[in-house]
Design brief:
Order of helices and strands: EHEHEHEHEEHEHEHEHEEHHEH
CATH topology of the largest domain: D-Maltodextrin-Binding Protein, domain 2
Number of strands: 12
Largest sheet: 7 strands, mixed
CATH superfamily of the largest domain: Bordetella uptake gene, domain 1
Strand order of the largest sheet: 1-3-2-4-11-5-12
Shape: globular
Helix content: 40-55%
Radius of gyration: 20 Å
Structural class: alpha/beta
Distance between the termini: 21 Å
Number of domains: 2
Strand content: 15-25%
Number of helices: 11
CATH architecture of the largest domain: 3-Layer(aba) Sandwich
Length: 322
């Protein structure tokens, strides 16, 4: 799937701005590759920051959707791109932390094939159920599952996704039997969830926000370390009695391997400047995404630690993709 949206900053063409300022970067549009379809939380977050990023860089930023294979298609495209800083991956925990343990043969190495640029945000997952299920807390949900072993199921956006891993973790930690139902379409999963064909789902808040606000889905908990400001009344999974249940997806920007350090520094500075903008911060928080800025060195260490952390989570779920 290939979808593009262009955001231009500054005045005139990128080349004119570069010449006027005597700068060598960027001299052509920057492609911010989102490895998922339009409308996903990754895509929506990229589109929130892209206009401001273009303005800071005084260039053009093209949001370039290249979905497929759980983010592998887009990530591989960036890994093989020219290391000039104009093709970047708007990645997340799936592509650069979970997939290394999920795929038997991954066509990229998350540490060797990418240049860390900057961390962006970390939206917790939200546990939602249809009102027809008749439960109002995690405790009630677990009790219902124990009284009806194997009859409750949970939707996800695919095998090995964060939504799948959260459902698996709940089943393991609560000692209940939940049936996993993977979907190719989040919209179809939401529809079946509202209709009661599936019992529960863990998913980022932003795509669910309108359904939650319309009372078509009930929030039982969130998966971060603390309650998010946009759902102050929803307990965390820790507060619900599962102290080790903290799974927060994250977003970050990487380039291909060997992007020159001056370009990395300029890009990182632009991203961090963007994330300090009060309007960007407010918009991210309002849509379920906590800004979590960090530079190249921090992102490199964080990526390695997340690869190691998710190795155990994926193994416990039994998820594998050949």
């Amino acid at each position: 799937m290939l979808t593009r949206r262009v955001f231009a900053g500054g005045i005139g063409s990128v080349l004119a701005v570069a010449a006027a300022r005597g700068q060598s970067f960027p001299t052509k549009p920057i492609h911010l590759v989102v490895p998922y379809a339009p409308g996903t939380s990754t895509d929506l977050t990229a589109r929130q920051i892209a206009p401001k990023l273009a303005s800071v860089l005084q260039g053009t930023v093209v949001v370039d959707n290249r979905g497929g294979a759980g983010g592998v298609v887009g990530a591989e495209a960036v890994a093989h791109a020219a290391p000039d800083g104009t093709t970047l991956l708007f990645a997340g925990s799936q592509t650069n932390a979970i997939n290394p343990s999920l795929y038997a043969k991954l066509p990229y190495d998350p540490m060797k094939d990418f240049t860390p640029i900057a961390r962006v945000g970390a939206p917790p997952m939200v546990l939602v159920v249809p009102p027809s299920l008749g439960v109002h807390s995690v405790g009630e949900l677990v009790a219902l599952a124990k009284a009806n072993p194997g009859k409750l199921n949970y939707a996800s956006s695919g095998i090995g996704t964060t939504a799948h891993l959260c459902g698996s973790l709940l089943a393991t930690q609560a000692g209940i039997n939940l049936v996993h139902v993977p979907y190719n379409s989040a919209a179809q999963a939401f529809s079946d969830l509202m209709n009661g064909e599936v019992s529960l789902m863990f998913y980022p808040y932003l795509p669910l926000a309108s359904l939650i606000q319309a009372k078509k889905l009930d929030v039982l908990a969130t998966t971060g370390a603390a309650r998010p400001p946009y759902l102050p009344d929803a307990p965390t999974m820790r507060e619900a009695g599962y102290p080790d249940f903290v799974i927060t997806p994250w977003f970050a920007i990487y380039g291909p391997a060997n992007v020159p350090k001056p370009v990395v520094d300029q890009l990182a500075d632009a991203v961090l400047t963007t994330l300090r903008d009060p309007d960007i911060v407010q918009r991210m928080l309002a849509t379920g995404n906590d800004p979590f800025p960090g530079g190249p060195e921090e992102l490199a260490k964080f990526t390695q630690s997340e690869i190691e952390r998710y190795r155990g989570v994926v193994a416990a779920s039994g998820a594998k993709v050949e």
